Amino acid sequence: MSESEGVLESSYVPYTATFQYAPYNFENTALEVGRSQWPNYDDQHYLRGCKWSPDGTCLLTVVRGAGMHVMELPSDLYTGESVMTSRPIAALQPAVSVPEGGLIYDYCWYPGMNSGNAATCCWLSSGHGGPIHLWDAFSGDLRCTYRGYNNVDEVEAAMSVCFSADGQNIFCGYKKNVKIFNTGRPGREYVEFPITHQASCLVASQAQPGVVAIGTWRNTIELVSQSDGSFRHLCKLNGHKGGITTMAFSLDGFRLYSGARKDKEIICWDLRVPGRPMFCVPREVNTNQKISIDLSVDGKWLVSGGTDGKVQVWNVTEQTYPTVHMQMSLHSDCCNGVSLHPYRPILATASGQHHAMDPLHHSRQTLQYENALCMWWIGAQQEDPDLLATIIKAATNS
Known about the structure:
The protein is mainly β. It has one domain (about 30-395): Methylamine Dehydrogenase, Chain H. Helices cover about 5% and strands about 45% of the residues. It is built from one helix and 33 strands. Strands 6-1-32-31-30 form a five-stranded mixed sheet, with no helix packed on it. The protein has a four-stranded antiparallel sheet with strand order 2-3-4-7, with no helix packed on it. Strand 20 (about 220-225) and strand 21 form a beta hairpin.
């Protein structure tokens, strides 16, 4: 599709017909149902998060030095209330790969993605030294670019990107401003909202269209309201010890959850009374790496990875101070990405991080680090009766 043509012509129609909804059950252990592994090279192909598509059909991940990859959800997981514990782990293979060699700063799905409508199947990415790219999720082709320029008319790389709730606009975080592009008009036409510090993280509220949270490397979060091309400052939130790396709005839009680098707390902000945090929950984050958080679509479950490889779960609908509802040791290395499926009880996780080179051997090939994209069933599970009978018979004979 050329830049002169419409980038997105169709309206958003939720694609849920093939899914049978099943709730998360964080009382059970996580059952691994899918995995994709990247080897250890000297240039360290570790993963940088993962995100389910809004329609739940596929999973997007970025691998440092090895591009972007879209994995399809195994077809047997679309329906059914439970999964057999003997189910083999599916070897996930990329349905679409984009060999983007540079460092990817941020990426996000088009919020109206519907696999039944090819025009809506796309995602954004922003990388080192280049413009913002819109990629086709079916072919991996580049649809168009959005180019932000600095004060000497040079193309500037955005550190963070996100769509507006309706997908009509793209918010891009730069060193001194947030640039807003019209999704249907690629190129260099944009409006700017000035900021004091570099925008490291952006998230748009689904419940309150036009409200955007801007996280910065200087530990602050600014909430703004955008309408008719103008911007209005709402409030500024202070409380983190490091630069903001991840945020998520609650379903009703009244809460904002945020996490920061080298900061071992997730803060929940009540945006109706934004003067102080509503509560804080702990997690293990001892590096500058982005460790993402996610909320379930019903707003009940908050999940976070950690540099210790563990995934923690909180029930944030509890009236009292929420404690860790469940803690799962899912990875042997840093778990930097978590994403909850919108319709099925499936948690996606991504692992990996930068490791210092051995000063004696000058190589990492002899060391085995985990760089994996995994899918975990967090729902009802059933024992395979044939397998159970075999185990009982073997125990009896022994």
